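pasting for the record
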Amino acid sequence: MADPFLAHRKQQEAQHLAKTSGSADPFSSLITVELNITELCNRKCVFCPRVDPEVYPNRNLHMEQSTVAKVAADLAAAGYQGRVSFSGFGEPFLNKKFSQFVRVCRKALPLNTIETNTNGDFLKVETIKEIFGAGLSFLYVNLYDNKEQRGRFDELMAQAGVDQSRYRLRDHWVGATQDFGLNLNNRSGMVDLHMEDSRSPADLVGAPCYYPFYKMLIDWDGNVLFCSNDWGRKIVVGNVLSQNVKDIWLSPEMRRVRQRLGSGDRSVAPCDGCNVVGTLHGKSSFELLTSFYATPAS
């Protein structure tokens, strides 16, 4: 089943391209900075590694505000035009400092899109008002239980005074026959989807992947993973507490990863076990960085 949310993401990507049109700055290839601010989640979805605590246990680990401030300052100094997404591997609202994080990012990045995903379990009128008051641009609520949830969340948003254009409700309760309303993937081999028609990593041998060309994931401890699908944390390319975000994005480590995946080489873990197509977004970033790497000065 096609994910209708893709159209929204495509629109955001087009808006980013409009803002950076004509730029030869390789840093403008970065469209999304994703922050994993907590290792806690109160749910265990069947399509998530958390379904098996032996594979991915719940851990009471959280990003500090100083880390968020460092990232925001680095992005502002680099003239970052993309979006900041609080999502990652846990439920953002389980970090008690979440609204403060949004406020810090908004102060440093007044014009950027700041968004979050949530399962909605902790949303109340006061919570919604607080997070939007801190500077959130978009709130994406994943509905896992039933279609009746839509009415409840629409009412909550209305009571909080949030315009319908500022939030989206994503129907994941529809079940496996409709891929849970997602573009399902195996989280770089960390979860068995138990679906006969599930795409195999073998089907993607030789196919390029654009993820490391347009998205950065910063883990709770400041580590930067090469890909937001690397739930097993196989490849760490830097740490924002000791390095500049732009330097990490344009580092030799990221260059090696990109040149490998750009040529369709998925033989290195975790890519060898991953079934993400990886080309739904990021083509322009791929082209920009490929051109940059072809210049002698790079």
